[in-house]
Amino acid sequence: MAQTWLVVGLGNPGPRYERTRHNVGQLVVDELATRRGETFRAHKANARVVETWLAPGADKLILAKPNSFMNVSGGPVNALAGFYSVPPERVVVVHDELDIPFDTIRLKTGGGHGGHNGVRDVAKALGTPDFARVRVGIGRPPGRQDPADWVLDPFGAAERQNLGILVGDAADAVEQLVGEGLVAAQQRHHAPRA
User: Fold this and answer.
1) Would the annotation count 71 as a binding residue?
2) What is the residue-averaged pLDDT of the chain?
3) Does residue 43 carry a catalytic annotation?
4) 40 carries a ligand binding annotation
5) Among 28, 79, 119, 177, which is least packed, fewest CB within 10 Å?
6) Which of 22, 43, 95, 116 is catalytic?
7) Does residue 187 surpass a pLDDT of 90?
8) Model confidence band, residue 29 (pLDDT cutoffs 50, 70, 90)
9) Residue by residue, what is the 3-state secondary structure of the chain?
10) What pLDDT shows up at residue 194?
């Protein structure tokens, strides 16, 4: 029987943040919507959403981008989970990860927030950390740059050359996580690149 999944791309609202490292989660859900020919629309849960399917006849996907700032993402995520009756085990949060090198994707369910305030707020709002995460590596800043500034900077020229591939790979990871489960997605996306 088909189930409903909530896939949330974390980020900050507005043009100033669109192409920054902190918004890579939203770029991934944009890619998932584009693959299905869908456009985001406003939702009363302070988010923009697309209602679609993994594939015809397969699980339903609610793709979402909160309109709130990253650090208060939990309210919209919790409201959407309630509206669509999606339990935490079928919530997938896609977010940037400083502690993973750029061009690398890691998947997990549960665990700590690793200092990521958006993930922390979602866990608090849902009342559990037991939701899936697709962690998109952005790497640590060079030299002494403050990580808080680094995540709010646009991707560099070298990164932009591979950003489309990274976003596409992360979208693939979401689809595989929903369609085949966490372990299958980890086995594919945690393997070294050939």
Assistant:
1) yes
2) 94
3) no
4) no
5) 79
6) 22
7) yes
8) very high
9) CCCEEEEEECCCCCHHHCCEHHHHHHHHHHHHHHHCCCCCEEECCCEEEEEEECCCCCCEEEEEEECCCHHHCHHHHHHHHHHCCCCHHHEEEEEEECCCCCCCEEEEECCCCCCCHHHHHHHHHHCCCCCEEEEEECCCCCCCCCHHHHHCCECCHHHHHHHHHHHHHHHHHHHHHHHHCHHHHHHHHCCCCC
10) 52
Question: Can you give the pLDDT at residue 12?
Answer: 96
Confidence band for 193, pLDDT divided at 50, 70 and 90: low
Is 84 known to sit in a ligand binding site? no
The token pair that represents 20 in the structure block = 């920054």
Q: Could you tell me the pTM of the whole model?
A: 0.96
Residue-range domains of the chain with CATH: 4-189 (3.40.50.1470)
